[in-house]
Design a protein that fits this description.
mainly alpha, elongated, 6 helices
């Protein structure tokens, strides 16, 4: 009979370990990964905005060259818009699919649900501002609010 106790203990602790990982570790890990991806997006997509500003201020080198630059820039803008909206959807899905998210936010392990909603709205607003003229100030406001809300350390 004493030979069964180690097996029972391993099953109990294994079950507790699984529950801990599934309900507590995984939501925090997902949120950390999303914050990392948003930080990468802040750096990666800032260059597209700079190139679109530079393209408008340059003189035309000829109709063929301008068309190729606009087409390349338009494809980059479309990919950027899709990626930013995808990140916003992933942020919202973490809040809505993880049952322990309110407890984790109460313990300050992850951002509050309202802060994540604000960050998702900023990502959508940022994506909607791409490719339109004279939106650089609005984009900067979205980026600053996003960084402040998710507490992303950017120097």
């Amino acid at each position: 009979m004493k030979d069964i106790y180690p097996y029972i203990l391993s099953l109990v602790f294994g079950g507790f370990g699984y529950l801990f990982v599934y309900y507590f570790w995984e939501p925090k890990h997902q949120m950390d990964n999303l914050k990392r991806e948003i930080t990468i997006a802040l750096t990666k997509y800032a260059g597209i905005r700079q190139r679109s500003k530079m393209k408008r201020s340059r003189d035309y080198d000829g109709p063929g060259k301008l068309y190729e630059e606009e087409l390349l820039n338009q494809n980059q803008v479309e990919q950027t818009i899709l990626r930013l909206k995808q990140l916003a959807g992933e942020l919202r899905s973490v809040i809505n699919t993880k049952k322990t998210y309110p407890l984790l936010s109460f313990l300050h392990l992850v951002p509050q649900s309202s802060e994540v909603e604000v960050a998702a709205n900023c990502l959508v607003g940022w994506s909607n501002s791409f490719g339109q003229e004279d939106q650089s100030r609005l984009i900067e406001d979205f980026i600053n609010k996003l960084v402040k809300t998710l507490k992303i350390p950017i120097s």
